[in-house]
């Protein structure tokens, strides 16, 4: 396996792991809301982005154009702030189980759209990994539409459209981000990630007065002081560094080195990591259906890597042969 392909695969899997840490947020923020957590997380991430630009200021100044800043800010809204708001709304109205079940559509939709646009792999090779991913997602989310899950639903008419909007935003972000990087081959991944992080932080700060007026934030009631919000600050900073900063950077590396269709199937491992993390938080063993779902998801990811690497090796061999 060549080095560039290996780096891309590792980066995509690391991004999936980093993003999966979001699933533990409800269990660690106490009386604070997910909006409080998002505010701290994005502001810390933006601060890291400013530090990156400052530490690499000579390089950053060459790429810090109005066009690049606007493109990164737009991507920050699509893939982070807008995605967060739709996911949170979906969880509020459709419940904590049904919303993630719909988000399982992301890797399948992204793989199909990505392969259609790039034609990186013949469809007959893509069908088996996609089928395994689909089966794994069904097994993992098998309890989403039971009577118990539906009992916690406030409004499917609002929650499901929000969940579908989240799917659309993430697919849009993945494709648009790769396209943006493709037309900026000289743009360092760290600088691009920093611009996206800063854009997301500024947008959350702009959203705060609106959200506070709607009572979406608990910080004004519970207090901004360290004694009242120490756990929020500690966890928000920790996950900002790991899930946002490292996750964004790793995804940008993967976007540069892998076809969208493969990256989409690798990001599905976020679900597997999320299930495992949830089991750890709840201190229980997986059910037979959950274990089977994770196993099938992993099988689909491994097969996708093997198929894409085999196809790439054949193309490289054909190029190397004299005509």
What does this structure look like?
- The protein has 323 residues and is mostly helical.
- α6 (123-140) runs antiparallel to α14 (288-320).
- The protein has helices spanning 3-20, 34-55, 57-63, 66-103, 105-118, 123-140, 147-150, 156-182, 189-213, 219-222, 226-257, 260-267, 269-282, 288-320.
- 43% of the residues are buried.
- It is globular.
- The protein has one domain (3-320).
- The longest helix is centred in the N-terminal third of the chain and has 38 residues, at 66-103.
- The chain has 14 helices and no strands.
- It starts with a helix and ends with a helix.
- It is 82% helix and 0% strand.
Uncertain stretches of 5 or more adjacent residues: none
Distance between the termini: 25 Å
- The shape is globular
The tally of domains stands at 1
Instruction: Summarize the helix and strand pattern as letters.
Output: HHHHHHHHHHHHHH
Helices and strands: which structural class?
mainly alpha
Task: Specify the oligomeric state.
Answer: single chain
What's the Cα radius of gyration? 20 Å
Count of DSSP H/I helices: 14
Number of strands: 0
Calculate the mean pLDDT score and round it.
79
Transmembrane segments: 7-29, 35-54, 66-85, 91-113, 125-144, 156-177, 189-212, 232-254, 266-285, 291-309
Organism: Ensifer adhaerens
Protein name: DMT family transporter
Keywords: Membrane, Plasmid, Transmembrane, Transmembrane helix
